[in-house]
Design goal:
With about 260 residues, the protein is an alpha/beta fold. About 20% of the residues lie in helices and about 35% in strands. Bound molecules: flavin-adenine dinucleotide and FE2/S2 (inorganic) cluster.
């Protein structure tokens, strides 16, 4: 598990501007919310959450944002990548009336847990928050699960005009939600946590990772919580005690980067 397996890319699909899904054969079990370390030969190894889970095939969905993701974006069907993992804890599916709030590429990793919830026939609403309508992806895939899908755009080009967390606040005031799941920009997730009050909450965090197996300490948040091992999914009670949640992350050199 801690050594990469080298495998060919099975499919490579453009989902929206600068967003791609690639799939690969991976017959092992993976839980929604877990992540792989993806090695792009000659470039880097980066964490990527699983966005597609079938028995034999798994997928990741990512934004072309920097050196590693740019190189990954260029790869085609048949090109090879290294995969190690899966790592992390994954979501715990609890509650009877669920709200999922995804922002940007955070949408991708929420889809498998929505699909899991819908297989159990749990009523759910999903908010997809993007900056502008051409960044929207996985809307049809989510609608096919029978979940209620709402879209928010920062610029108002589609759906609700504003942040996904603001739309979520309105829903939390109107509907009887008993569990909130989120992944997206950390400031959005920390606002959402403050709106949830006593409603249980699970959020997926991203931190710069090196080992992904709890040894190097690079991904620590709060008082020594390792995102790679203790997370990446943390509950609301834990996050309320993490002083850096929604405030800053650390870069590869350990410098604080404000959100
Ligand atoms: C557990 C986990 C799961 C992840 N899952 C996904 C996923 O499913 N899809 C996806 O697109 N990305 C995901 N990421 C983030 C992804 O790993 C980074 O975007 C990637 O490492 C960027 O690498 P790069 O070399 O392309 O960019 P870099 O050249 O390293 O950075 C480019 C820009 O992106 C910023 N950046 C880099 N990493 C992060 C980060 N972790 N958070 C915020 N900003 C960052 C940098 O500050 C810089 O401005 C995940 C991260 C973690 C920790
Ligand atoms: S990445 Fe090394 S401890 Fe988490």
């Amino acid at each position: 598990m801690n050594h990469p397996i080298i495998i060919p890319i099975l499919t490579s699909t453009i989902e929206a501007t600068d967003i791609k899904t690639i799939t690969f054969h991976y017959p092992g079990d993976v839980l929604p919310g877990q992540f792989f370390m993806v090695w792009i030969p000659g470039v880097d190894e980066i964490p990527m959450s699983v966005s597609q889970i079938t028995k034999r095939v798994k997928g990741i969905t990512f934004r072309n944002i920097g050196d590693a993701t740019r190189a990954l974006y260029q790869l085609k069907k048949g090109d090879h990548i290294g995969i190690r993992g899966p790592y992390g804890n994954g979501f715990t599916l609890i509650g009877k009336r669920l709200l999922f709030v995804g922002g940007g590429t955070g949408i991708a990793m929420l889809v498998p847990v929505v699909e899991q919830a819908r297989k159990k026939k749990l009523p759910s609403t999903v908010i997809l928050g993007v900056k502008t309508k051409n960044q929207l992806f996985f809307e049809d895939r989510l609608r096919r699960t029978g979940t209620t899908v709402l879209v928010s755009t920062d610029d108002g080009s589609l759906g609700y005009k504003g942040f996904a967390s603001d739309l979520a606040k309105e829903i939390l005031q109107k509907e009887k939600i008993d569990m909130v799941y989120t992944c997206g920009p950390e400031r959005m997730m920390s606002s959402l946590l403050s709106y949830c009050k006593s409603i249980p909450f699970q959020a997926s965090l991203e931190r710069y990772m090196k080992c992904a197996i709890g040894i190097c300490g690079q991904c620590c948040v709060g008082k020594g919580l390792r995102v790679c091992l203790d997370g990446p999914i943390f509950d609301g009670a834990t996050l309320k005690k993490v002083e850096d949640f929604g405030i800053y992350r650390r870069d590869a050199a350990g410098r604080k980067i404000l959100f």
